Every structure is written in C-alpha cells, then in structure tokens.
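Minutes, project check-in
Item: structure for the 238-residue chain
Input as provided by the requester:
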Amino acid sequence: MALEPQEGQQSSPRRVPRPQVPVDDAIKAWGQPLSPVKDLDEVARRYPDRKLTLESERRPLEFYSSDPGQPNAFSMDSLEFLFLIAQYFREALPLRMILLLIACQRAGGQIYLTQDEMATVLDVSRTKASETLQVIMSHGIVFKVKRGCYQFNPPYSYRVAEFIPGTETAGTKNRYVKVEQYDTISKIRKDASLPDLVRFPSLEHMRQAIEELREQRAAERAVRRLKRAQRQEEGEPQ
C-alpha cells in the first residue's frame, strides 16, 4: 500500500516513460532525412545485373558458396588505412562511401558501381556522391578505370578471391576467381598515365594532412580564446 505524502513533503516526481524509437523507422531517431533500409535484398533488386551482391535465393549467412572445396570471397584491408581515414575524414559521407567501395569490390579490387548507384545506396544526391568520390580519389585510395568501374589501391583494400556460382545462365558452371595482389600492384606501377600517388601509394601524406588539420584547429581555438578574453576585459557580454 503506497503511503500518502505528509504535509510539507513533496511527492516524488512520476517517472516519464522514455519515448521509443519506431521499430520500422529507426533512422528517424537521428533526425536525418534518410529512408531506412529494411531489407538488403530489396536494395539489391534495384541493380538486377549485380547478382553476386545480395540475392534472396541464397541461404542466410551464405556469401558466395556452400561448397567446402572452394573458399568464399575475402578481402585484405589495411588496419593502418582504416585508422587514418577515421582520423582524417571529419564527415560521415566519405567514410560511408569507402565502406561501400570495400563491400562492393570484386576479386582484384575492381568496383563496378556507377555514381548514380553510389548516390542511391548512400541516399544522397548524385552531385554529393560525385564530390565525395573525387575527394577519396584525390588521396589515391581508388582510381577510375572506365565509366562505372573503379580500382582500389591494393595496399589499402584488396579482395583476393571470390567464388562465383553460375546463376546467370542455365548451364553455366561455377568458377573461382583469384587475383594476386602483387600482379595488380605491378600493373598499376607500370601505368605511367596514373598519378604517382596511385602508382606509389603512401599514407604519409594523409598523416601530414591530419597534423595540419590539428594545427589549424588549435590556431582557431587560440583566436577564439583571445577574443573572449578581450571581451571580458572590455566588459562586453559573452
């Protein structure tokens, strides 16, 4: 039996129930004008020619093949690269695009995605996707091979192999594709049309850029502190 509060005592405040995030639209909790992805296979159906990415016909958790004699696709990602881009890119979109490119690369590190597809998956305008891709390319992370085809720089991320089931055409046999990283690096270095940052990749320029960003922000903070101190001396409101 609950006791009534005595005279002069305040009753304890009633607990307000915490608002629940809509189960079917969790992205609204962040106030972003994005549409939630409820079904990955539904996203895959937008691109009927990309049958290896996501298919409802595959069993859950089966990436490419259930044949124990053939290994599934796998990637080699530089942890140092992931560490540095987490420091360098202060906005979410470049990081999201790099993750998309890593996820969609084929054996040998090539990515068959148009900028329209990138924009659709990331739910941004094509202009924004194009600008972000140019920033990523400016650091030699990926480079354009042809329209709708990009190449990952092997030291950053590289898919070595993948097992491709013959689902496109009746009678087509399954095949296993493997591309050695060394062969791809040698081919890239021999292509004189590519910039040196692509042919001879290094993360040192990004480390330097991180230090420059930190110095710039430290200088901006110092200017703000000086202005606040001057206003205090002059008796101006903060």
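Outcome recorded: Confidence is low (pLDDT under 50) at residues 18-23, 26-30, 50-65.
No further action items on this chain.
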